[in-house]
């Protein structure tokens, strides 16, 4: 063989070998280090991963796979985690396969719907991410007024599907939030005073259990499970389909912001507290004190009125008198525009640290504390909101759903954020200092906000519904495979 031919042949063999090794690693045919459900270091056999991948319709990604780094990223940039595997599910059968693989290998499990989990539960380090993002179909039956929604759907997608039919499902306030996580935690938003929480419209669900079985929950079939899914978080399995009752809705609302100077923050909040008791169910208000990165502070008063123009104008006239309005953009707008109006204030990739509590009354001392927090160092890019609750969502019995904080008149939310990680420590410290002062006012906790705090107890999040939830958790997930959530601990065997 000529030297030139030999060298060419050798290069071809070496290149092919390198490609084979890369593909072999990407395909999982080598063993993969991983983390178990209990936090122990384990190893996934390459042959087992290959077999798992062959059975899945959607891709199964490892660190070496194309698209892995994109798939593992979640909304909250504070969490930079690397799952051993990402199962990108395209169907219920894929979800069953992923749950069975996780259970067989006792893997740490994270379930990603919209990826918007505040405490970062959508992704895990060293476990398996069951990624539902590819599952985003929404089917609307306008005659029955029912929307059937897959778990990867975002709120904007739900609104775009229902609005052409003159229907709406009450949901959250940021359109790139996932339907699944928001719903399972309760679902508070602009229409809760008029139509109730998101869970109040949840009439059915399909769920894959920790044993890999598909079960259906409705008023006629396993109503206990349906009740648990109405605010009990992702404790019981992986929901692959939500069935919502949709409500007739005109398709627009009078909404927007009124901005008041920070110097008037305390008087604006006091006027807001007084007005809340007289506000109609059509009016939702969310005053927020915020500070930009340069240190400029202001009060941004969010409002949404879903009634007619006359009623909305009367409410707006009252709010304008709370103080000196320095900017306003309130107008009648399409509902999809209202729901996405503040998306840019919660961008993907930014770091966030958030806590929230519920109160039955806005005490003067609480309002003083809200203003005083912005006199402390580290408040740059900080936000404190005093979101109005009540209305229809408060008139249902606490026992009607797993969501327990029905009596709340307001939810106060403290958020620190940063684009540059060098500010993370100082701003998180500011948030924790403020939360420590706020916590004594709280009469309950919204589990979606506080799930990442190890000091938060399940009783504070689930209240009098906890005992029933524990029984249902024990029935469906006795080993706590699904524990990256506002967790409910199952009873020990024989207890």
Any overview of this molecule?
The chain is α+β, with helices and mostly antiparallel strands and 495 residues long. It folds into three domains: 14-131, Uridine Diphospho-n-acetylenolpyruvylglucosamine Reductase, domain 2 (2-Layer Sandwich); 138-249, Uridine Diphospho-n-acetylenolpyruvylglucosamine Reductase, domain 3 (2-Layer Sandwich); 252-458, 3-Layer(aba) Sandwich (Vanillyl-alcohol Oxidase, Chain A, domain 3). The chain contains 17 helices and 21 strands. The chain has helices at 3-27, 46-55, 68-72, 92-104, 155-162, 179-185, 192-195, 223-229, 265-276, 309-320, 335-340, 364-372, 392-395, 424-438, 447-450, 458-462, 466-476; strands at residues 32-35, 41-44, 60-61, 85-88, 109-112, 128-131, 138-141, 146-149, 167-168, 202-208, 214-218, 238-245, 247-248, 252-261, 283-291, 297-305, 327-328, 331-334, 351-359, 383-388, 410-418. The strands form five sheets. Strands 14, 15, 16, 17, 18, 19, 20 and 21 form an eight-stranded antiparallel sheet that branches. Strand 15 (283-291) and strand 16 form a beta hairpin.
């Amino acid at each position: 063989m000529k030297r030139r031919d030999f060298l060419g042949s050798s290069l071809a063999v070496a290149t092919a070998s390198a490609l084979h090794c890369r593909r072999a690693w990407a395909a999982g045919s080598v063993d993969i280090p991983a983390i178990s459900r209990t936090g122990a270091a384990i190893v996934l056999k390459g042959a087992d991963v290959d077999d798992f991948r062959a059975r899945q319709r959607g891709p199964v990604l490892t660190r070496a796979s194309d698209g892995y780094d994109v798939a593992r990223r979640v909304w909250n940039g504070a969490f930079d985690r690397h799952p051993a595997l990402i199962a990108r599910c395209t169907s219920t059968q894929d979800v069953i396969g992923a749950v069975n693989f996780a259970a067989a290998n006792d893997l740490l499990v994270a379930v990603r719907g919209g990826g918007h989990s505040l405490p970062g539960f959508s992704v895990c380090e060293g476990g398996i991410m069951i990624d539902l993002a590819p599952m985003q179909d929404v089917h609307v039956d306008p005659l029955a007024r029912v929307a059937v929604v897959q778990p990867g759907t975002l709120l904007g997608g739900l609104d775009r599907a229902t609005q052409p039919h003159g229907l709406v499902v009450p949901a959250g306030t940021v359109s790139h939030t996932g339907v699944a996580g928001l719903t399972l935690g309760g679902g508070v938003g602009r229409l809760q005073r008029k139509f109730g929480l998101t869970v109040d419209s949840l009439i059915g669900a399909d769920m894959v259990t920790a044993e890999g079985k598909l079960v259906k929950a409705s008023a006629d079939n396993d109503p206990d499970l349906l009740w648990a899914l109405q605010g009990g978080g992702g404790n019981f399995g992986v929901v692959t389909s939500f069935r919502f009752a949709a409500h007739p809705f005109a398709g627009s609302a009078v909404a927007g912001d009124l901005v008041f100077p920070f110097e008037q923050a305390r008087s604006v909040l006091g006027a807001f507290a007084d007005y809340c008791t007289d506000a109609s169910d059509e009016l939702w208000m969310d005053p927020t004190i915020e500070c930009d990165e340069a240190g400029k502070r202001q009060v941004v008063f969010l409002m949404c009125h879903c009634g007619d123009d006359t009623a909305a104008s009367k409410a707006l006239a009252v709010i304008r008198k709370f103080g000196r309005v320095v900017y306003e953009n309130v107008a009648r707008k399409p509902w999809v525009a209202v729901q996405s109006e503040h998306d840019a204030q919660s961008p993907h990739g930014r770091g966030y640290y958030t806590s929230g509590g519920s109160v039955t009354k806005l005490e003067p001392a609480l309002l003083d504390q809200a203003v005083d927090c912005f006199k402390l160092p580290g408040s740059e890019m900080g936000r404190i909101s005093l979101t109005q609750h009540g209305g229809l969502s408060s008139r249902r019995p606490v026992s009607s759903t797993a969501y327990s904080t029905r009596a709340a008149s307001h939810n106060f939310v403290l958020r620190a954020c940063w684009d540059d990680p060098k500010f993370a420590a100082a701003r998180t410290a500011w948030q924790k200092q403020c939360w420590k002062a706020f916590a004594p006012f709280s009469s309950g906790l919204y589990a979606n906000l506080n799930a990442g705090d190890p000091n938060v107890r399940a009783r504070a999040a689930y209240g009098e519904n906890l005992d029933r939830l524990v029984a249902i958790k024990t029935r469906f997930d006795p080993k706590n495979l699904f524990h990256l959530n506002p967790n409910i601990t199952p009873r020990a065997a024989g207890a």
